[in-house]
Amino acid sequence: MKLILTFLFVCGLIISNTEANDLVDKVTKLAQECKGSTGASDADYENLLNYQAPNTDKGKCLTECVLKKSGALGENNKINEAVMVEFIKAGAAGDASIEKIGMEGLQACLKVPQHPNACENAAALNACFTKNLRAKGFKGLPA
């Protein structure tokens, strides 16, 4: 569910093996923790889990919190490429075509200009991943 949602979303691309299921569970728990610490609403939380772009400042900060706590986003608010590669591989569950889509999305999103506001930055990166996955015809995301 997550990618990391969203990105994390890239993480939860496929839920067909134990590693992918564990990753989804981890991200879901992080999202719940971050919901409390950011003051995000239930709607913000549900949007995150359903790959919907955050539409509130607290929703954007929820995304940022999950990405940071998962290690996908470094302290410098840049994508942690090594962690994302691990998430993509876990989410792909051995499916080379899904892994390729995830890796192409990662490369595209590494080029997203960094926003000075950490929450806006995380939301932009999340939107990039979701957009790239949908553009590649990935079927694991809701329309």
What does this protein look like?
Keywords: Signal. This is Pheromone-binding protein-related protein 2. One of its GO terms (cellular component) is extracellular space. It comes from Ceratitis capitata (Mediterranean fruit fly). GO terms for molecular function: odorant binding. The protein has 143 residues and is mainly α. The protein has a single domain (3-135), classed as Pheromone/general odorant binding protein domain (Recoverin, domain 1), CATH 1.10.238. The protein is 66% helix and 1% strand. It has seven helices and one strand; from the N terminus they run βααααααα. It has helices at 5-11, 18-38, 42-49, 57-70, 81-92, 96-109, 118-135, and one strand at 3-4. α3 crosses α4 and α5 (81-92) runs antiparallel to α6. The two termini are 14 Å apart. Residues 1-6 and 8-16 have low confidence and may be disordered.
The shape, in one word, is globular
What's the CATH class label? Answer: Mainly Alpha
Question: What's the CATH architecture?
Answer: Orthogonal Bundle
Could you give the distance between the termini?
14 Å
Give the name of the CATH superfamily.
Pheromone/general odorant binding protein domain
Summary, kept brief:
The chain has 143 residues and is an all-alpha fold. The protein has one domain (3-135): Recoverin, domain 1. It has 7 helices and 1 strand.
Task: Provide keyphrases for this structure.
143 residues, mainly alpha, Recoverin, domain 1, 66% helix, 1% strand
Write the layout of secondary structure elements.
Elements: E1 3-4, H1 5-11, H2 18-38, H3 42-49, H4 57-70, H5 81-92, H6 96-109, H7 118-135
